[in-house]
């Protein structure tokens, strides 16, 4: 069983900021709080400030404003205490390709002060947990990207941390490896570990996060449970594909009275927020037909995290509309 933090937030951030020498404010005064034992999703595009925030919280980068406490300790004034209580798996794992998986994890155990008689057993336990037992004696240089990520996760867990930081852990992974890592995050939450998960994948945030924060251009623009954020946006939207989009501006004028229009990326597409849901479809179709527009396709969509991101930032998250492919069955 993982350790627990009693009576205090697992992560508390107040006005946290980081400005670099060139004047760039990578993180601009964010506030957030993560409860013990929850998965907190930190969602945003590349360059939004996710990794900079994580690097400050794990004591690798000094804040230039505000303050933060992790596991009850100040990240600036008590970095050693913070490091003893956290596990960290960053985007690029620094794994020696000439060492085997077992050697690396046993070295990590030794560095964390685990007694020599327990090192091998603890390493084997975690190697098995992330599904690498058969590859434990292979050199890490022969591992796939997914295997390296899983080994890095095992190393981050070697000392049974109270708070685990995962910085975009599934970026570039194949679908099977991604789902395996999702299962491990769920298991850690069930065991009481607090997980701070940065991601640029909407589905990942929706699947894993108990609560999430959306960061854009260094600022936290939304926070809450996925369900509450979607309910806040509230309105379903109707996506239409016109048979002929040569006069798209006139088509937009026709549907403007039925609801607010959403940005689209393709020429013949319209997207309209409609408060009435399915009952609002027929009047829109009649109006378009009366104006001489034929509709080739239509779909009524309920609010998603992409809608939340769009409402809060004015743009879609890159890749948000690309579904995650299903894993191949063996």
Task: Please describe what this structure looks like.
The protein contains 11 helices and 13 strands. Mean pLDDT is 87; it is low at 1-6 and 321-330. The relative contact order is 0.14. With 330 residues, it is of the alpha/beta class. It folds into 2 domains: 11-226, P-loop containing nucleotide triphosphate hydrolases (Rossmann fold); 235-302, YebC, transcriptional regulation domain (Alpha-Beta Plaits), CATH 3.30.70. The chain has helices at 50-57, 79-85, 101-111, 116-129, 145-156, 175-190, 202-208, 226-233, 248-255, 281-290, 305-313; strands at 11-19, 25-34, 39-43, 65-70, 73-74, 86-89, 163-167, 194-199, 211-216, 219-224, 237-242, 269-273, 295-301. Helices cover 33% and strands 23% of the residues. It starts with 10 loop residues before the first strand and ends in a 17-residue tail after the last helix. The strands form 3 sheets. It has a 6-stranded mixed beta sheet with strand order 6-7-8-3-9-10, sandwiched between helices. A 4-stranded antiparallel beta sheet has the order 2-1-4-5, with helices on one face. The radius of gyration is 23 Å and the shape is elongated.
Structure, briefly:
The chain is an alpha/beta fold and 330 residues long. The chain has two domains: 216 residues, P-loop containing nucleotide triphosphate hydrolases (Rossmann fold, 3-Layer(aba) Sandwich); 68 residues, Alpha-Beta Plaits. The protein is 33% helix and 23% strand.
């Amino acid at each position: 069983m993982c350790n627990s933090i009693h009576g205090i937030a697992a992560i508390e951030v107040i006005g946290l900021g980081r400005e670099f020498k060139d004047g760039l404010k990578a993180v601009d005064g964010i506030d957030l709080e993560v409860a013990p034992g929850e998965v907190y999703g930190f969602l945003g595009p590349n360059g939004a400030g996710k990794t900079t925030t994580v690097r400050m919280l794990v004591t690798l980068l000094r804040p230039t404003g505000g303050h933060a406490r992790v596991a009850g300790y100040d990240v600036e004034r008590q970095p050693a205490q913070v490091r003893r209580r956290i596990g960290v798996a960053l985007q690029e794992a620094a794994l020696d390709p000439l060492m085997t998986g077992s050697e690396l994890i046993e070295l990590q155990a030794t560095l964390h002060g685990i007694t020599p008689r327990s090192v091998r057993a603890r390493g084997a336990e975690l190697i098995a947990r992330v599904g690498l037992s058969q590859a434990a004696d292979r050199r890490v240089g022969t591992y796939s990207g997914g295997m390296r990520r899983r080994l890095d996760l095992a190393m981050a867990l070697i000392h049974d941390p109270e708070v685990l930081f995962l910085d975009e852990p599934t970026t570039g992974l194949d679908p099977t490896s991604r789902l395996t890592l999702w299962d491990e995050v769920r298991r850690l939450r069930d065991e009481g570990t607090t997980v701070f998960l940065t991601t640029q994948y909407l589905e990942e945030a929706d699947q894993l996060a108990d609560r999430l924060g959306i960061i854009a251009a260094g600022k936290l623009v939304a926070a809450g449970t996925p369900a509450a954020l979607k309910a806040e946006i509230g309105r379903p939207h109707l996506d239409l594909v016109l048979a002929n989009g040569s006069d798209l501006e006139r088509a937009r004028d026709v549907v403007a009275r039925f609801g607010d229009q959403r940005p689209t990326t393709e020429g013949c597409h319209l997207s309209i927020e409609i408060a009435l849901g399915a009952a609002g479809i027929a009047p829109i179709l009649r109006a378009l037909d009366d104006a001489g527009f034929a509709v080739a396709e239509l779909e009524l969509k309920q609010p998603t995290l992409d809608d939340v991101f769009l409402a809060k930032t004015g743009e879609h998250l890159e890749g948000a509309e690309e579904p995650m492919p299903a894993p191949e069955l063996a």
